[in-house]
Design a protein that fits this description.
6% of the residues lie in helices and 57% in strands. It has one helix and six strands. A hairpin with a 3-residue loop joins strand 1 and strand 2. The protein is globular and about 30 Å long.
Length: 90
């Protein structure tokens, strides 16, 4: 993994709000699962009733609200076309 210049933090408030920093992109999003590309690898958040209340890729910050059940990291996968939001706003 390459040298990180941003600090990666995950903050969970009452299992109903998660704030993630050092976000590069959102690979996919629905009401039950969000796949996030971070400086530390791919992060998958599962739960119910998810809503993205803030996404700022320039600052690397993402805030998701909903009921959080699980967070999982995996090694960074090579993406062929960017994440969901980068494809959406081309």
């Amino acid at each position: 993994m390459e040298e990180n210049t941003r600090e990666h933090k995950v903050t969970i408030d009452n299992r109903s709000r998660i704030t993630v920093t050092a976000v590069e992109d959102v690979e996919s999003f629905d009401e039950e699962k969000v796949i996030i590309i971070t400086d530390m690898g791919t992060m998958t958040v599962t739960g119910i009733d998810f809503k993205i209340s803030r996404l700022n890729v320039e600052d690397g910050q993402l805030i998701i609200e909903g009921e959080i059940d699980e967070i999982q990291y995996s090694e960074r996968a090579v993406s062929d076309g960017g994440g969901f939001f980068s494809r959406l706003f081309r």
